[in-house]
Design brief:
Blueprint: E1 3-14, E2 17-19, E3 25-29, H1 30-35, E4 43-48, E5 54-62, E6 69-72, E7 84-93, H2 95-100, E8 104-106
Length: about 120
């Protein structure tokens, strides 16, 4: 049996753009993608803290260290620049794999940059 578990998230990112005239997806800063263990084309759930909207789409790689988090296409109707969102990915694995799996959680700063360690 396989179960779906929380794989990773970018917690409280700020929407920088909403581009209605695009094919679809969410563009995310490449550095944030890597830190959150996301790959281009991966399905994600986006939860908007400002208005309660939830949507699913796929990830497009944005310029590294740009801070971009842009909702594209129809998803652009679900948020506006400045909204705070949580971007979540899930993975299928066996219950045994899930017991030892450690999800990646990223807490970007107010400019969607990775904090200095």
């Amino acid at each position: 049996m396989m179960i779906t578990v929380f794989k990773s998230k970018i917690h409280r990112a700020k929407i920088t753009e909403a581009n209605l005239n695009y094919v679809g997806s969410v563009t995310i800063d490449e550095a944030l993608m890597e830190a959150a263990n996301l790959i281009e084309g991966e399905k994600v759930q986006i939860v908007n803290n400002n208005n309660g909207e939830r949507l699913e789409t796929y990830v497009i790689k944005g310029p590294r260290n740009s801070g971009v988090v842009c909702l594209n296409g129809a998803a652009a109707r679900k948020a506006q620049p400045g909204d705070i969102v949580i971007i979540i990915s899930y993975a299928m694995m066996t219950p045994e794999e899930a017991k030892n799996f450690k999800p990646a959680t990223v807490f970007p700063d107010e400019n969607n940059r990775l904090p200095e360690n």
